[in-house]
Amino acid sequence: MNVRPISAVENLRLAVLVSVAFVFPVCAASLQAAEFNLRMQANMGPKLTPYIALEREFVDGVRKMSAGRVEITLFPVGTLYPAAEGLDAVANGIVELGMSTGFYYAGKMGPIASMESGLPGAERDPIERNAYFYEKGFIDIVREAYAEHGVYYLAPNLSSPWELVSKVPLRNKLDFAGKRIRAGGIEAEWYSSLGAESVFISGSELYTSFATGVVDAVRWGDESQNMAQGLHEIARYYIKPAPMPAPNNHILVNMETWNSLPDDIQAILETAARQTSLTYMTLTRAGNARARKALEQAGMEFITIPVAEWLSMERVARAIWIKYAEEGEREARAVSLLLEFLSELGR
């Protein structure tokens, strides 16, 4: 690992942090330099809420909790590699850590990648999604799958809903027929079953593709993220409910790097990753009401598909992911676990 000298000011700041820390105490000798210098690329740009949460809780949080032993250099989406190539980039050591999205890897990993990034017709909020990962044990299945590709699956980055913005009104399932919609993974299958054409576009190409008519609608983030992306400049209609009400990105770690880290640093990374999700959702909740008002003032019309119609659409999606159990033993375990969990929730 590269060693970077710490200035007198930085050394003093770290000494203060250690004096008040009651979690992950370290000895004074460890304050002299970062022991682990790690590079990380996000799958979004600096102005978006997920990136802000990643800087605050993961990059800065790891530095503070490790008392300077770990220094993470964060790069915006597309800086070192294309967003859709995050799995290989982390596995091959282009970066030691990366935030990416599972449905990008459905072609490489199969249905488990789509299940990992969230399923329409399944969990309905991030709390349920968190319980499925950590209380029901889905994270163990996911870690097993990603380990086969040379990475350690650190944690899901639990998200606010991923919602649809459209150039044309979508008021019922019939309105989806013939439309071109940005989607990937199970969403692509779902929209196709409704008669739409799914188009795969990475987040870094989203605005340009939408503006130039490659797609009629895109599924991206929530109100605040869609406003930050400027989608209100292109499209008039904002569609509710969210097709992905409980999705997630994830943080991956190069397996060799992960195995080289001591237990306390591994624990710090996992703790910071989970806190990153909480901060992301907190910041989003605080900003969405303001964002909706701004979007309406910009001329966007909010459309809510009727409940009965939406439940009918969700049943179509559910039938798709239930069939994933036929794809392999790992998928069968994941589907069985999810159905058991939904049954416990009364669904």
Structure description:
By secondary structure, the protein is an alpha/beta fold. It folds into two domains: 8-160 and 249-286, Bacterial extracellular solute-binding protein, family 7 (D-Maltodextrin-Binding Protein, domain 2, 3-Layer(aba) Sandwich); 162-246 and 298-344, Bacterial extracellular solute-binding protein, family 7 (D-Maltodextrin-Binding Protein, domain 2, 3-Layer(aba) Sandwich). 46% of the residues lie in helices and 16% in strands. It has helices at 8-20, 49-65, 86-91, 106-109, 111-117, 126-135, 138-147, 186-193, 206-211, 223-228, 255-260, 263-297, 307-322, 329-344; strands at 36-41, 70-75, 97-100, 151-158, 162-166, 180-182, 197-199, 217-219, 237-244, 248-254, 301-304. The strands form two sheets. Strands 7-6-8-5-9-11 form a six-stranded mixed beta sheet, covered by helices on one side. A five-stranded mixed beta sheet has the order 2-1-3-10-4. The longest helix has 35 residues, at 263-297.
Concise synopsis of the structure shown:
The chain has 347 residues and is of the alpha/beta class. The chain contains 14 helices and 11 strands.
Name of the CATH superfamily of the largest domain: Bacterial extracellular solute-binding protein, family 7
How far do the termini sit from each other? 50 Å
| Secondary structure tally, helices | 14
Q: In total, how many domains does the architecture comprise? A: 2
Assigned CATH class of the largest domain: Alpha Beta
**Which residues sit in consecutive blocks of at least 5 with pLDDT less than 50?**
1-31
Mean pLDDT: 90
